[in-house]
């Protein structure tokens, strides 16, 4: 298994933090648009971590 890159680690950490913010905003009853933005950001960060995996570089 290849060692993850620094960018990939950063994206994974960002995705985990955004997922926590998403859940917190849902539980606390925050505005729907903030929940939507944080949810989309978590998905994009997860997808970016997947695309930046070492095996994807050829």
> Strand tally, please?
0
Low-confidence stretches: none
Helix content: over 70%
Beta-strand level of the residues, as a percent range?
under 5%
Rg is 13 Å
Query: What count of helical segments does DSSP give?
Result: 2
Structural class: mainly alpha
Mean pLDDT: 90
- What is the number of independent domains? 1
Distance between termini?
15 Å
Order of helices and strands: HH
Sheet of most strands: none
Overview features:
single chain; 58 residues; mainly alpha; elongated; membrane; transmembrane helix; transmembrane
Question: What does this 3D model show about the protein?
Answer:
The protein is elongated. The chain has helices at about 5-30, 30-50. Helix content is about 75%, strand content about 0%. α1 packs antiparallel against α2. The protein has one domain. The mean pLDDT is about 90. By secondary structure, the protein is mainly α. It has 2 helices and no strands.
